[in-house]
Batch of 2 targets.
Target 1
Amino acid sequence: METLQLSKGRLVMLTEAAVILFLGFWMLEEYANNVYLQDYVASFWAVNWWVAPAAVAALVIVGGISYYLGLGRNGMDEAMPERKTAGEVRVALAQKELVTNSGVMVMDVCPFCNSSLRMVGEDRFHCRKCKRYFKR
Ligand SMILES: [Zn+2]
C-alpha cells in the first residue's frame, strides 16, 4: 500500500507549478503555431531589446541596495545595544548625562555635597563623601 501524504502548502505549490508550466507550454505552442505572434515577438524585441538586460540590472541593483540596507541595520544593532553595560553607565555618569532607556534623567550628583554618586542598585545611589543614600 502506498500512502501519499501531501500538505496543503505543498499541494498549492504543485498546483501553481502545474499552472505555470501549462501556461508556458501554451505560450510556446501559440508562438510555434501563430505567425502573427512570432511577428509581434520579433518586432517587440527589435524595439525593446534593452528590456531584458535592464530588468536584470534593476533586479541586481534593488537586491544589492536591500542587502546593504540589511547589513547597515544589523551593524547599527550591534553598535547600539538596547541595554547599557556597566561600563557605559559609568561613562554616562561621569559625563553627567545618564538617561535611562525610558528617557528619564537620572540624578548623578549629590544635592548636598555635589560629588558624583555611585549606583548601588537599579534606582539607588550612594554618595561617597557624605555617605547618604538616594532613591530616584
Ligand atoms: Zn554627598
Target 2
Amino acid sequence: MDKVNLAIVGCGTISQLNAPGYLEHNDCDVVALYDPITERAERRASQWGIAPRFHESFEDVLNDSTVDAVELLTPTSLHTEQIIAALDAGKHVSCQKPIAGTVAETDAIAEAVARSDKTFRVTENFLYYPPIVKAKELIDSGATGELSMVRIRTVWSGIESNKSYEVEEGALDWRRDASLNAGGLIYDDGWHKVATAMWWAGDVERVSSIVTKTDDFMMESPSAAIWKYADKNCLAVFEYASAANMPLRTKYYPVDEFMEIIGTNGVLWVTRCTGEMLDMPPVVFHHDGTTTSYQVPMDWIESFKGAARDFVDSLIEERQPNMDIRFAKKVLQTTLAFYEASETEQWVRPETLT
Ligand SMILES: NC(=O)c1ccc[n+]([C@@H]2O[C@H](COP(=O)([O-])OP(=O)(O)OC[C@H]3O[C@@H](n4cnc5c(N)ncnc54)[C@H](O)[C@@H]3O)[C@@H](O)[C@H]2O)c1
C-alpha cells in the first residue's frame, strides 16, 4: 500500500481535531464520511474542502471496497461493536479512546485483532503530544536515571477563553448516561493520563484511590489515585481537581495538565497539554545542577496530527502503531481499578479485573 483511503465514521466534536492530520498527509485521502446526522458529515466535508462519498450506514462504509481504513470517532458505547465489524470486514481500524467499557469487550476486540490480518490501534493522541514525546525520549535515553515518582495533575476550569472548536449538540448527553459511558472524567479523560504514565514508566501493579462522585455524572472532582508500578520501585500520583471559577486559556477543552517525573538524575516537568495555563516552556529538566528548557511544538492539535500521521505511515510501512489492544486493555483495567479501589477502600491489582 502506498496510499491510504480512509473513511471517517462519526463527524461530531472530536472529528474537528482528528481529521486535520489525515487531510494534511500526502499519502492519505479521506474518501468517505458517515454520520447518522447527515448534515454533520456534509458540514465537515465543506469545512475540510473535500468531496467524499457520504454513506448512509456503517454497513455501507464496510461494503465500500475503496475504503482501506476507518477512523472511528463515535460515542464510546459503539466502539467495540464497530471495531470488530470493521476488522471482520477487512478494514484497518483506528478508534478513539476509551475503546470499551468492560475488560470483556477488550478481550472480544483482541480476538477480532487475532483473526484479522489488518492493523488495529487506539487513537491515543497524548502519546503524540510533542512535550510528552520529548519526556519519553529523556526517560528512555537514561537522562532522568531510575524513576521513583510520576505525578500527573489535571485541573478543570468552568470558564474557558480563546476557544476554537465547537462541542456538538448531544456530545455531553451520552457521556452523562451511565448505561452508555462506563464512568465520568476519571474514565473518559483519565484514560489519557494513565496511558501516558504507563508509556513513560511501565505496567501498574496495584492502585489505591478516592474517586469523588458529584451530581454531575462526568465531574468526579476532587479525585486522586496512587499506584505502584510493576517490577520497579516507582510510584505514581494521579490528581484530578476543579477550579470552577478560574478562567483558563485554552483553544480546546477547559482543562490543563502538569506532569512531573522524578528520577535518580533529575526532575522533569511537562508543564501543559490540553490548555495553555502557564507561561512556561513545555518541557523543563533540572539535572546536573542546571535547568534545561525544551521548546517543542506545544499546541494540543499537534498530538492529533501526530496520531493521524503515524496511523497512515504505519499502514504504509506495515508496522504496528502505538497503542495496540494489549496496551489498551491494561489502560482500561487501570482506569476501572480507580473506581473499584475507591468503592472497596482496598488496593486493587488492575490485571485481576476481567
Ligand atoms: N482524544 C481526545 O482527547 C478526545 C476528546 C473528545 C472525545 N474523544 C472520544 O471521541 C469519541 C467521540 O466523542 P465526541 O466528543 O466527538 O462525541 P460527539 O457526540 O460530539 O460525536 C459523535 C458523533 O458520532 C455520531 N454517531 C452516533 N452514532 C453513530 C453510528 N452508529 N455510526 C457513526 N456515527 C455515529 C454522532 O451523530 C456524532 O456526530 C468518544 O469516544 C470520546 O471519548 C476523545
